[in-house]
Description:
The chain is α+β, with helices and mostly antiparallel strands. The chain folds into 2 domains: 4-96, lambda repressor-like DNA-binding domains (434 Repressor (Amino-terminal Domain)), CATH 1.10.260.40; 101-256, Beta-Lactamase (2-Layer Sandwich), CATH 3.30.450. It has helices at residues 4-18, 39-46, 50-57, 66-75, 80-90, 98-101, 103-115, 135-140, 154-160, 163-167, 171-185, 193-205, 207-214; strands at 121-124, 130-133, 224-230, 234-245, 248-256. Strands 2-1-5-4-3 form a 5-stranded antiparallel beta sheet. Helix 2 packs across helix 3 (50-57) and helix 12 (193-205) crosses helix 13 (207-214). It is elongated. The model is unreliable at 98-102 (pLDDT under 50). Residues 32-83 form the HTH cro/C1-type domain. InterPro entries: Cro/C1-type_HTH (IPR001387), Lambda_DNA-bd_dom_sf (IPR010982), MLTR_LBD (IPR041413). GO terms for molecular function: DNA binding. This is Transcriptional regulator with XRE-family HTH domain.
Amino acid sequence: MTTAKTSLGSFIRTRRERLRPEEVGLNSGTRRRAKGLRREELAGLCGISPTWLTWIEQGRTESTSAATLSRIARALLLSRAERKYLFELAGIHDPEKGEVAAESNIEESLRDAVRVIQTPAYVLDHAWNAIAWNKPASDLFQEWLAPGEVRPNLLNYMFLNPSARQFIVDWPVRAQRLVAEFRGDCRSLMDDATITSQIEVLRQSSPEFDTFWSTQNVLEREGGERAFVHPQDGHLVLRQLTLRIAHSPNMKLIILF
């Protein structure tokens, strides 16, 4: 019967067998019979015992640490997708957060893409900082996405900028939902220093945020109607669409139309 442990072991074994010794700096030799790397070779690259690696590949371990999986992933030269799959099979969180680290590599292309969208659009990173937005978005969110701002944070605007309460229709309901969405969005990043510091500052600075956070409500970030009272254009009702970025799921593209 296939289980998560046997699937993990099988995946590691197939990745080991496809890797040539010379790809990881080892001498393949002239009388080599093994397909790919030997268990002893991979174990040596990972700094673990061959017996322990055997047990992992055979699904005989109760648990495998994140540190061990990280060493295995590096030794096997796994791609980002393969590394993510490895940790998902093990049922543990990847401490290196490769997805977050990859954000800086695609920000420029996102900025170019957002500029050509004709309606308000912006991109949020894992901490809900706006890293890209277009002119329609800055025209709509004048107090948040002002020209010259560097990574303006949506939660800081919502709870620390008094103008948000007049601009966003039904602010208390929207604010409470936003906190629940943020908790659901960052559930795998609760040990991230940026996230923990951000939450602590908001809890200390905003009684409303502290109250909403303490309820521990969790929601997915969804679309739907959003109403605003714009200083020039008056009452506006727009529909929101939230899209995940394929190669960096902790980033979100939000379009209002």
